[in-house]
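Morning F.,

Quick status update on the modeling queue. The single chain you submitted on Monday has been processed. Sequence for confirmation:
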Amino acid sequence: MIDWKQVNRLRTDVGIDAFDEIIELFINEVQGILERLRDRPNYAEMENDMHALKGSTLNLGFQTLSELCKKGEKLSADGNPKAVNLPEIHSCFQISKSKFTTELPNAIMDEC
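Structure tokens below.
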């Protein structure tokens, strides 16, 4: 569900000091898009939204969620944006975020 190698790459790339801020920004961005999609989905923009979610969640290491967004992007690109399973994507985000928050302290590698 979480690609901890990716999380550690992100931490290395942005630096330890900026890591928490970057994570908060990514999570807020994903959460904002998902809330908008839940409250007022714009099917004409679904492909772009799924693409943005795919990229952000991949950067976060949310592997399973990124794959769901990739499927949603493909469905939208193929002209089927209403077929995107938004409840599944929302649920996966909540589970991923909880797992991420709980397991992060033990999953990050300390620099030597």
